[in-house]
């Protein structure tokens, strides 16, 4: 039997256990095309069945389609059965493990969540399904709030529209954080055992799962609203308007301390929950990007529903220009990330999206001030991923807080002892670690809105605060390069070349030291990351954990001279670094 015949045999076995009519018919048609020797059919079959979608520290994530290397009901059923076996195996004798399951508005999210609940219940795990589509942070919250052994969120977050995913949290000692080694490998092994030994129709199911009471959402709203400081007169501004309505011109009713805000949910699930938190915190509701406010799995106005991607915020800029807004707040589709944009005449759109590092610096500074004011600086810590700006460490030292750099991902950031704030540059922020041990775009939005409102009440802007940061701590700038590839071997080749033939300089800036984190070090587990240290700068290189990309992070800083001189120095250094690294990897 040749390799194509083996793939066809695997595909037929998969077809016979697929309960989804759409993917069943899709695979059936593919097999017919293979039989007719269609030129690209064998390559498609090999892509789907030549490997399996790996279960790792980010769970599962991939394109919706038939086959073990895609997201579908067979794969999710196997994952649910494997996770159930893992939970039962690690449960204390005489105890019954439990799990809370959530889902967003992507295609098949509710189907995958319901399949998971039925399979968990069939295995003897207490399964609690959240009452409706909700943001990812609700699952991280519910694991702790309900005291469950684990949590699953069905979402692909900010991935392209055709993707979906399966994100796993653990309770008990893990306190609702995402899985880390060795749990990820143990779950993956349990899933593989299921896939190898049990046909999906033979996996026990039960409809005896529970539907969580709405009070779990109420409690999340209450604790998240409590993050806000008492609002300025913004709280009274336009409260009589129905949500998302008004004259569209904030200036007509603006008074001291008030802000004009535009919000987009990016076709995701953030708005309903965010609106409730705004009401509970006493803030006025913002103007809405109406075309993107309701969940829509087709994502009709964006090709890539990630606020970091070019064009993703174009409708927000349009709405903000029409309204004369002071601030744009954007959540990604599952509302675990936050993007902020400010008026800036230097940009064609009239607005500039802040980098994740800029937002992280401001929220970290705010958290450090609060910890110091409460007399808790010595027992508190700030944390960020190793590819985020070094600026947060400077803030921590200035206020006497601890500081930790972790591997990328909030599964690591959230585990920092004494954490009061953590972030990573990819628009993820953890502002309430006592209740949610994951990035949370809704609580971060409330924290940032509170900061902006406090500034407005004193006649200052967020842009002014960024200048104050640069004047006090130094000016920090960052640039990210993402090299998307069609063949993952290209990434391995670039990483190997950087290790074996590292550059002596980048754009004329000398490389002083190269740290290869493949062996770990300084409390960081082994990771495929290279860190290049240069005078007043740093370059981090790593493969993406969720997409076929090589990611390069450039950071530069300056404390010399006035604000303008610091900015110019950082801009020049970043330009030299970018040119140098592109030359080296091309």
Automatic annotation (TrEMBL):
Listed Pfam families: PGM_PMM_I, PGM_PMM_II, PGM_PMM_III, PGM_PMM_IV
Cofactor(s) of this protein: Mg(2+)
InterPro entries associated with the record: A-D-PHexomutase_a/b/a-I, A-D-PHexomutase_a/b/a-I/II/III, A-D-PHexomutase_a/b/a-II, A-D-PHexomutase_a/b/a-III, A-D-PHexomutase_C, A-D-PHexomutase_C_sf, A-D-PHexomutase_CS, Alpha-D-phosphohexomutase_SF
All residue ranges annotated as the Alpha-D-phosphohexomutase alpha/beta/alpha domain in the record: 53-193, 258-341, 367-469
Location of the Alpha-D-phosphohexomutase C-terminal domain: 514-557
Record family assignment: Belongs to the phosphohexose mutase family.
Protein name, entry field: Phospho-sugar mutase
Organism: Herbiconiux daphne
